[in-house]
Amino acid sequence: MNPSVDLAAPADDSRQRLEQLSAVARQLLDRARAAGADQCEVTCDEDAGLAVNVRLGEVETVEATRDRGVSMTVYFGKRKGSASTADLREDSLAATVAQACAIARHTEEDPAAGLADAALMAQVLREFDTWHPAPFDADRAIDIALACEAAGREVDARIGNSDGASMNANASLSVYANSHGLLGAERATSYSIGCALIAGEGEAMQRDGWYSVALAQGDLESPEAIGRRAARRTLERLDPRRLPTGQVPVLFAAEMARSLVGSFIGAVSGGALYRRASFLLDSAGTRVFPDWFAIEEDPFLPRGFRSAAFDAEGVTTRKSMLVEDGIVQRYVLGSYSARKLGLATTANAGGVHNLNVRANAGDLASMLRGMGTGLLVTELMGQGVNAITGDYSRGAAGFWVENGELAYPVDGITIAGNLKAMFAGIEAVGSDVDPRSHVRTGSILVGRMTVAGEG
């Protein structure tokens, strides 16, 4: 048996499949209106994927998936009901509509319930170069994963073990439609290769890795380059030391820096705000970051991980600033949270789109030189962030930096502070953007944090 996932048929039929999902969506909307619903919306999804994992030159798992789902929400006045199914037969679709309507008739009214305003619906529906299908079978995926792991293990004799390597390929089709007349279709592919290696022996063992992810297979780093980078990162962590407790500058490597941006986004998101569960309540129009700092949301980035012409409610997306001159320009809202707050949706139902954090410094090497002495964080552990107070405390590992150069690896430490002070204390954002996320930021230098280690 040779599991495969046909991400690209000889003649790509994704548009025909999207039309089939669109027909299902139209049928469900018609059924809901016939049942008396005042408003309704439908999402139809189809996904296919192949995942391969290898370890120490042997295949561990091969998984081919194909999923399909339909979810719908109906509104009777301000009462809401939702139901879903994976079965597209007529009787199942009819039962799904009936179940959603029955739930809506028996729920309490919610003044904030309902579709987004009709005037906000997307009028121009376009794609952003996110569809790059390719035929994949298990044998090819296995070869890629094996080549990645082998390249890493061959770097140095101290690489004595492995947590394995993986190859993943996925394709997704999605249709969103509502009773305002909007029907939008989206399609996207994604590919990833990753490797994690182990160096040293006994209690001195260290683990690290690397991965590459892209919407087009040709944009991935080569399997061999990924394996070798995973090996170098693992070897660099050997013989770590502890640090004395104290306050020092902390430089978050780019892949760690995006977690700081994520904490900010969570604090200015509608759900946290209307529940009064955010340390950035009433922050719109106030300076939270240094006066040079900026974050821009760009839903229209070609091959962006979160590019879209409309949000999860069909609202037209737009390119806009979240932070400008260090000042919070707006919150992150869908229509429900906006109504709860007495504000307007920001086309962020379903989350933020691509975020660009403006750099004011050079690459990582220049950031290290600028810091001089301090801590470079390359790994974070735990979830020690209090969303209400902003208190921040997480396990960390990385490198001690002296005279702008890496001096030695460190682990077994905790970094702590308060996010409000950390945001205000950002001294630099590097140009070394990590492209593997919709949060596009370089390394971020925070001027002073508490590092808890020995003593």
TrEMBL record:
<keyword id="KW-0482">Metalloprotease</keyword>
<dbReference type="GO" id="GO:0008237">
    <property type="term" value="F:metallopeptidase activity"/>
</dbReference>
<feature type="domain" description="Metalloprotease TldD/E central">
    <location>
        <begin position="132"/>
        <end position="238"/>
    </location>
</feature>
<dbReference type="InterPro" id="IPR002510">
    <property type="entry name" value="Metalloprtase-TldD/E_N"/>
</dbReference>
<dbReference type="Pfam" id="PF19289">
    <property type="entry name" value="PmbA_TldD_3rd"/>
</dbReference>
<dbReference type="InterPro" id="IPR047657">
    <property type="entry name" value="PmbA"/>
</dbReference>
<protein>
    <submittedName>
        <fullName>Metalloprotease PmbA</fullName>
    </submittedName>
</protein>
<dbReference type="GO" id="GO:0006508">
    <property type="term" value="P:proteolysis"/>
</dbReference>
<dbReference type="Pfam" id="PF19290">
    <property type="entry name" value="PmbA_TldD_2nd"/>
</dbReference>
<dbReference type="GO" id="GO:0005829">
    <property type="term" value="C:cytosol"/>
</dbReference>
<keyword id="KW-0378">Hydrolase</keyword>
<dbReference type="InterPro" id="IPR035068">
    <property type="entry name" value="TldD/PmbA_N"/>
</dbReference>
<feature type="domain" description="Metalloprotease TldD/E C-terminal">
    <location>
        <begin position="245"/>
        <end position="453"/>
    </location>
</feature>
<keyword id="KW-0645">Protease</keyword>
<dbReference type="InterPro" id="IPR036059">
    <property type="entry name" value="TldD/PmbA_sf"/>
</dbReference>
<feature type="domain" description="Metalloprotease TldD/E N-terminal">
    <location>
        <begin position="49"/>
        <end position="104"/>
    </location>
</feature>
<dbReference type="InterPro" id="IPR045569">
    <property type="entry name" value="Metalloprtase-TldD/E_C"/>
</dbReference>
<dbReference type="InterPro" id="IPR045570">
    <property type="entry name" value="Metalloprtase-TldD/E_cen_dom"/>
</dbReference>
<dbReference type="Pfam" id="PF01523">
    <property type="entry name" value="PmbA_TldD_1st"/>
</dbReference>
<comment type="similarity">
    <text>Belongs to the peptidase U62 family.</text>
</comment>
